[in-house]
Each structure stands twice: as structure tokens, then as C-alpha cells.
């Protein structure tokens, strides 16, 4: 089964090109197994972990099977957290971009009306957290008649977070004649029951559960009294000369405290927890993904499914109380063939959690001695110098794909009663343009975005700014910044 290529998976040209432009050379194990079955429209239960490429394993077949002309959503993807919701939507949008697949993300703590406006445009795939998705369904802003695919992502986390009733409420409203795919890192009895109730003769796919190993991640721990933890944290950051690190705390109060103390003492960092405004959460996550700052202090909100490249160190400032959580947290490092280090602080009260984690992992965390003050002092300048230099920004993985797409902004939108057909008509009047050159059209109230493919963007821009009108009116067009 090893080493199938994307070409051998019978993907269409537009999807294949997008996948290659995203830098995916060969399908991952989970993709090799899931994509063919999903394309045969089989119900599947997939036991796999984050970081295995599982998002693309459902995003690729979904994008393949979307009928682009259909206005109402054809697929619904449920995810447990808002960050994951946005990440999954972005992955789908990237993979489907050249085919013009439109995906929308719906999640709590963001204005309902913005999402309704988004959903009113042609939307092929909706990605949502369960509560907000249910709200939209009940208010009629997500039409379900055409749904052919349901994906439940991170099902075990849905259970942990108490979302399973809402997930079931959503499922009950969906057309019965659909394909259901469920992804989970662990398949508990409850998940089995859920599958038994809502899936048709599901096939089970298990991608050799990559045990956390000591090959890619060095696991160490420090025994430290509660009141010395913060000082040890500073010393460890210096000693390890960290490049990029997530520091996990058990509560948002601890995150607030640790991050403000670090900032006050010259260790610039940012924070992420569920009590923050949604926009701030997304901004912080994006900035960390791009490598704009090196230290993120977070609760488990950041542990699950979130894909950040090159996190060199995970520090469990507070030991996780659930053994699975240790695996999710430390899975943020040592990704994509890189080496990582996981450091856990343990005080006397934490011993039983440590034992449970070690039993679950099947190996012991290495006990390290607290570093001497002299050693830390001798290394401090180097680290502070590093903190004060600007990190090199990480490349956005969709940048190659974006080069294929020329995004145009025009100063006319819904208020001027512009419809996609009007824009298409105008663009087709540009010499040499065909409908194959037009990508996604996004019409907002006062403005619109148009994706132009095949290197013909500047031609369209010139046309729109000279003689071409939309609905008989001339418009101002410019290359979009984003
Ligand atoms: P996931 O398991 O979906 O969180 O994916 C983990 C990371 O792997 C993401 O950054 C994906 O963009 C990336 N990825 C997915 N499929 C592939 C592939 N076939 N080759 C290389 N990277 C991939």
C-alpha cells in the first residue's frame, strides 16, 4: 500500500495541481487509505492522529465530488474548536481553490450576521463547530437538502468537550442519504455507539497509531516546587535557547499570570485561551503560525489539531491531568521530520499524573537536574539577544498556490445589486478570457473580490479600469492586498 502517488488516486487536474502547489508531494498513509474509499462514497471511521494529513484526506475527496454549479451546501464538516474550524476551512479552500470550491467557516463568538451573509453566497462546504452550526440550521441560514457528505472531525474531542448531543442534533436534521466520515484519535465505546446509530455499514480504517516515540521528541521532566516554577521556566527558556515554544498551563488564570510575568521580565510572549475574544484568538494563532513571535502561553485550546510548523519546545508548566492531553500537547513539536523537546514540570502533588502519563506512553520521562544559576547566567545574554532579533517569518504554505490566482478587488457589491453572473459577463467580454479563467467570486456589501486564474489577472484589471462596465456602470478595480 505504500508509496501511491496523488496521480494514482485518480484526482482531477485542478485538485492535483492545487495539492502539488501546496507542496504535498505524495499522499500520506491516511490519505492513501481514506481517499479511494471516500471517492467510492463509503461510510468510514478513521482512527488517526492530527499531523497525519487527515484533514486533506477528507478535504480532497470532498472537493473532488462537489458539483460547482450547485448553490446550496453539499458537505458539512463538524470540528470541536473554533481554531480547528478555521484551519480545516482554509485547507479545504486551498485544495478546492482552482476548482472554485467555496467553503465557509461558522463558529461561536463571531457575529452571526457576518456568517449569514457569507452563507447566502454560493457555499459548497460548510465547516462549523456544533453549537453555531445548529443555530444556523435552526434559523434556516444553512440549507441541508443538498448535503451529501458529513465529516465529524476529532470525534473524541467532541465527546470530551460535551458537544456530542449537539452533534447528534445536527445529524438528525441531515438527509439520510449521505456519506458519513468520522475521524478520531481514539475510538471509545461511545463513539462506536454513535457510529452504529448514524452510519451505514461503516468501514474502519486504522492508520498505524503512531505511538509517541522518543525518536523525534525528547521527553524530559523537572521536579520543582510550586513556588519555584516561574523561575525555573525562565531558566529553561534560556538554557534551551528556544526558537519557538508553547507553554501549556491548566487554567486561563495561569496563562494570564505566566504571560504577563514573562512579558514584564523581558521575555516577550503572547497568550491564547478560551476566555479571549474570538478575533484575538485567531490573530494570535495566525501570528504564531507565521513565526511572528517565539513564545506562546496557552491552555489546551492550542493543543488539539492545531498545525504550527517548527515548534522546537513544548513546556508543560502545569502537568496535564489527562494522559491523552500529554500526547496532544507534545504532538505540537517534532512534526514533519523535525526534532522537538517536551519538558514537563512536576511537583509533589503531580506524581500520580506523571505515573499515569508514563504508563500510557510506555516509557519514562527523563529526570533532569535543575540547572545551576551560573550556567543560566552564562547563557542568558545569547538568549536575550535572540529574543530581541526579529524571527524569520515562516512561509505560508498557500503562497505558491496564491501565485496561480490573481485576486481583484472592485468597489461594487451587493448594495449596487451586483450578482456573480454580472461579474462573469463583464469578465468574459475581456478579449481572450473564458469561464475557465474565472475563480471564486466573493460579493460583499460594498465591494467584491474576483479570483482570476491562468495568468490573465492583469488583462482583466486593465479591462475593468478602462472600457468594461458591470451592469452598465464603470467600476474601480485594483489588485487585492490579501
Ligand atoms: P493534519 O493531520 O490534517 O493536521 O495535517 C498536518 C499537516 O500536514 C498540515 O500542515 C498539512 O497541510 C500537511 N499535509 C497534509 N497532507 C500532506 C501531504 N500529502 N504531504 C505533505 N504535507 C501534508
Automatic annotation (TrEMBL):
Chain segments carrying region Involved in 23S rRNA binding: 406-482
Q: Which domain of life is it from?
A: Bacteria
Q: What reaction is this protein's catalytic activity?
A: ATP + H2O = ADP + phosphate + H(+)
Domain DEAD-box RNA helicase Q, chain residue ranges per copy: 4-32
Stretches assigned to the Helicase ATP-binding domain = 35-205
The record's GO CC annotations read: cytosol
Its subcellular locations are: Cytoplasm
- Top EC class, one word: hydrolase
Q: What does this protein do?
A: DEAD-box RNA helicase involved in the assembly of the 50S ribosomal subunit. Has an RNA-dependent ATPase activity, which is specific for 23S rRNA, and a 3' to 5' RNA helicase activity that uses the energy of ATP hydrolysis to destabilize and unwind short rRNA duplexes.
Regarding protein family, the annotation reads:
Belongs to the DEAD box helicase family. DbpA subfamily.
Protein name (record) = ATP-dependent RNA helicase DbpA
Q: What is the lineage of its organism?
A: Bacteria, Bacillati, Bacillota, Clostridia, Eubacteriales
